[in-house]
Amino acid sequence: MKIKTNGIEIHYEIAGNPQGPWLTMSHSLACNLHMWDDQMQALSATYNVLRFDTRGHGQSSAPGGDYTLEHMADDVKDLFDALGITRTHWVGLSMGGMIGQTFALKYPGVFQSLVLADTTSRRPPNAAQMWGDRMAAARAGGMPAVLDSTLARWFTAPYKASAMNVMKRIGAQILSTPVDGFAGACAAIAKVDTLDRLKEINCPVFIIVGEEDHGTPPDMAHAIHENLPGSELLVIPSAAHLSNVEQAEEFNLAITGFLTRAA
User: Fold this and answer.
1) Closest Cα partner for 231 from 253, 263, 201, 256?
2) Whole-model pTM?
3) What CATH number is given to the structural domain containing 95?
4) What is the domain range of residue 245?
5) Which pLDDT tens digit goes with each residue over 225-253?
């Protein structure tokens, strides 16, 4: 299904328990709502699960130019308004976690709880060059030019070598991401800077990170944890950036337990 929000079309799916509380899931850069497929069985019996393709990804519109995390948060607010959602839990990974932080600060009171997985709240000193290089590579060679390096960052080497079907599934999501959408979102991620305001977030927060996540490493998760009094932190062994895929069972047990406590 699609809804026109904030000047673009957002593709979304709703599944699960229509009588249950809302749970919204926000995917990483260069993925789409199917990044969360491994979580649906664990969540759908209890929650009314909303998944959506972020602007520039999946079947949502991919306008040219630089995006901002504020644009993306406004997309979500318009989507919620169109669907009549006034309260929801939020699970966001990487870019989805950045959107979640931005939304929680801009629209307080909407989130019942917030899961921030494999994400950051402050750009590194080399962000402009690092993300600029990735944008340039994609613009020059299309998404195949960033495929191998992305999969190498997202998964541990042993898992990547042994889980070829997963590599094909996630690789297909990377390759199907429009270059304009990838580049636009890279520009947004390169400017993330919410760390000093995190104390303003007043809902329960659970921070998850893969022990071997080199893109948003555990020290970034610890920084978020330290700036969010009362938050919980879990480091998942034998997982890199897409901890929800590489260690799906542990990820699912962790978030379902947290959501129960938060409720």
Assistant:
1) 201
2) 0.98
3) 3.40.50.1820
4) 2-262
5) 999 999 999 999 999 999 999 999 999 99
